[in-house]
């Protein structure tokens, strides 16, 4: 076949290859509609004659679809890609969309990136991971496109969540059951109030009941009430970002308190792993002198020594399920996924 000179249309290509217009279109846009052999044959011939495929802009005008999904993250881009839980979520999301040849446009919430640039109008819909800044959420809603939320809820949208309260309750009940009658526990919280620094909970309003960390806090506190060991606000630390540095600072302050807590209930594995290091630096043995628990079950939780007692959440599955709901591969309804307590060396 001789390479054709000039601008080819989809109709021209279909005529040259002796197939229908729809077959050529499906080879580029809906590969699942053709056999692998037929699709590869059509794509090979298109390369020979110099046809790059249907014009994306024209296709989007015709169908109203671009094949691009907006993913709004609740934090800075750099933070979201370095955080193990966010990384697993994005992996689950990407695997589903990649297999079906969709593209992702990742958008931060806390960076100084404005949605007014117009790219939010170009996507087919949004998956929103964690509550973004209110004004950015309002801008997404104003687009009147499909929105699926993960780790939070908004009225009228399908959501994918885990049972944060039940996971925290089970973890705290396990830890507090082995504490001495005169013992004390401390909570190393994460974004539970409006203070942008590591501090005790004494001042600052709690965020709304729907946030995941407030649900975890309620689980910890209810377990403490069950064992008649209420945890005073002075023994609850606010940590604004899920980083080793801030977790270490809060853990060191807690472990140097008088009386020293026998149990540290941490709202993330990153914080708990930082607490393990702080305990070692203070000459404390885990679990003999202090028991430490986490939440998330990231890979490092079972490779460190001592291994970390934590709550396993289905981070990757959240991404997979959100993507499948968006694409119509699952029923369009909200889901709450179960958690599982993983008992290991840090709090046997």
| Morphology call | elongated
How confident overall, as mean pLDDT? Answer: 86
CATH fold-level topology of the largest domain:
Rossmann fold
- Catalogue the unreliable spans: 1-5, 57-63
CATH architecture of the largest domain: 3-Layer(aba) Sandwich
Domain count, please report it.
3
Instruction: Give the C-level CATH assignment of the largest domain.
Output: Alpha Beta
Helix percentage range: 25-40%
Distance between the termini: 72 Å
Structural class, from secondary structure content?
alpha/beta
Strand order of the largest sheet: 2-1-3-4-5-12
Q: Main β-sheet: number of strands, strand sense, barrel status?
A: 6 strands, parallel
Number of strands: 13
N-to-C order of helices and strands: HHHHEHHEEHEEHEEHEHEHEEHEE
- Strand percentage lies at 5-15%
Mind telling me the CATH superfamily name of the largest domain? Response regulator
Brief characterization of the structure:
This protein is α/β, with parallel strands linked by helices and 348 residues long. It has helices at residues 10-17, 21-29, 36-49, 56-63, 77-82, 84-99, 134-141, 164-177, 212-226, 244-255, 269-281, 315-326, and strands at 68-73, 103-107, 125-129, 146-150, 158-162, 185-188, 199-200, 236-238, 263-266, 291-293, 310-312, 335-337, 340-342.
């Amino acid at each position: 076949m001789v390479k054709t000179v000039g601008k080819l249309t989809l109709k021209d290509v279909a005529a040259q290859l002796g197939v229908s217009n729809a077959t050529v279109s499906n080879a580029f846009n809906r590969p699942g509609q053709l056999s692998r052999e037929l699709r590869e044959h059509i794509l090979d011939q298109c390369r020979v004659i110099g046809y790059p495929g249907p014009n994306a802009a024209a296709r989007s005008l015709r169908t109203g679809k671009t094949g691009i999904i907006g993913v709004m993250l609740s934090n800075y881009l750099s933070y979201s890609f370095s955080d193990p839980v966010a990384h697993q979520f994005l992996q689950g999301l990407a695997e589903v969309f990649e297999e079906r040849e969709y593209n992702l446009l990742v958008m931060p919430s806390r960076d100084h990136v404005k949605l007014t640039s117009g790219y939010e109008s170009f996507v087919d819909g949004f998956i929103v991971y964690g509550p973004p800044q209110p004004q950015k959420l309002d801008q997404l809603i104003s687009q009147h496109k499909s929105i699926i939320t993960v780790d939070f809820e908004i009225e009228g949208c399908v959501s994918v969540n885990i049972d944060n309260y039940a996971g925290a309750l089970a973890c705290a009940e396990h830890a507090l059951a082995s504490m001495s009658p005169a013992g004390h526990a401390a909570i190393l919280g994460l974004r539970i109030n409006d203070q942008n620094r590591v501090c005790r909970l004494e001042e600052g309003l709690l965020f709304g009941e729907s946030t995941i960390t407030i649900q975890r806090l309620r689980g910890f506190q209810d377990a403490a009430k069950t064992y008649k060991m209420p945890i005073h606000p002075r023994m609850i630390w606010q940590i604004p970002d899920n980083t080793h540095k801030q977790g270490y600072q809060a853990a060191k302050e807690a472990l140097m308190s008088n009386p020293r807590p026998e149990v540290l209930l941490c709202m993330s594995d990153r914080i708990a792993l930082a607490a393990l290091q702080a305990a070692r630096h203070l000459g404390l043995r885990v679990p003999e002198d202090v028991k430490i628990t986490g939440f998330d079950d990231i890979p490092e939780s079972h490779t460190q020594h001592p291994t970390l007692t934590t709550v396993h959440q289905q981070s990757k599955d959240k991404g997979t399920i959100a993507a499948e709901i968006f694409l119509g591969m699952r029923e369009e309804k909200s889901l709450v996924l179960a958690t599982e307590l993983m008992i290991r060396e840090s709090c046997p």
